[in-house]
Amino acid sequence: MTTLYTWTTPNGRKISIALEELGLPYEARAIDITKGDQNDADFRALNPNGKIPVLVEEDGRIVNESNAILLYLAEKSGQFVPKHGTQAYWDMLEWLMWQASGFGPMLGQAHHFLRYNRGKSEYSEQRFHAEAERLYGILDQKLTGQAYMLKEMSILEFAIWPWVSRFEHHEVDLSAYPAVCDWYLRLAERPGFAKGYIQPFEVEPIPLPKDA
Ligand SMILES: N[C@@H](CCC(=O)N[C@@H](CS)C(=O)NCC(=O)O)C(=O)O
Fold first, then answer.
1. CATH no. for residue 123?
2. Which residue's CA lies nearest to atom 16 of ligand 1?
């Protein structure tokens, strides 16, 4: 069976949501990054970069980097990915890179300064909060008038949604981004998202905006 080394964070949940939506059997193994499990030699042998998520197949294949894992699973199953080489495929790749390089790292920095180290650097709090708002503006523009990031649901939903679920951490008011809010709430109702969200164990219900 596929093993997913993961923790209760957006990058980990990307993959458990994908596996649930794809209906692929897997075992979620907890790597407690708050205790430093990611630095254990056994885990470093799987991912020298010391980060979850890591996917290990029954035949020993190891795949690291959440968005590479999403691409791997989509190609393996032939689901949630446009046909290779089409315009939709390149659109998908463009937004996957956008998530990996911006709507992930920038929100992570916002969490670091606004939530976990508040008061240490006003400049950084403002900088990353402003960047979070800017990225939500881009996402809202993209989702306005369409149900999904592409014409149909794709791995982009799995890559982006878990980061939006942290809206309280980056102090973004979802009601200011109605297209994002609508998309977020619709996906939250899917059983695959609900089950994937509580891997490797449940911490809290999926956060909902106050007026939802
Ligand atoms: N680019 C990596 C980032 C993975 C990542 O940042 N994982 C975090 C949890 S969401 C982690 O393992 N942090 C532990 C650490 O930095 O020591 C990916 O997308 O897989």
1. 1.20.1050.10
2. 51
Question: Which among 154, 146, 11, 15 has a CA at the least distance from the CA of 83?
Answer: 154
- Does the residue 194 lie in any domain? no
Instruction: Take atom 11 of ligand 1 and give the residue whose Cα is closest.
Output: 51
Q: Tell me if 102 CB under 6 Å of ligand 1.
A: no
* Model-wide pTM > 0.85: yes
Query: Nearest C-alpha to atom 6 of ligand 1 is from which residue?
Result: 51
Give tens-digit pLDDT for 125-140.
Answer: 999 999 999 999 999 9
Give the domain CATH number at 62: 3.40.30.10
- Angle at 179 (CA atoms; ends 10, 124), nearest 5 degrees: 50
Best CA proximity match to 208, nearest among 187, 150, 55, 18: 187
- Band (pLDDT 50/70/90 cuts) for residue 98 is very high
In a domain, 195, yes or no: no
Q: Is the pLDDT of residue 212 over 90?
A: no
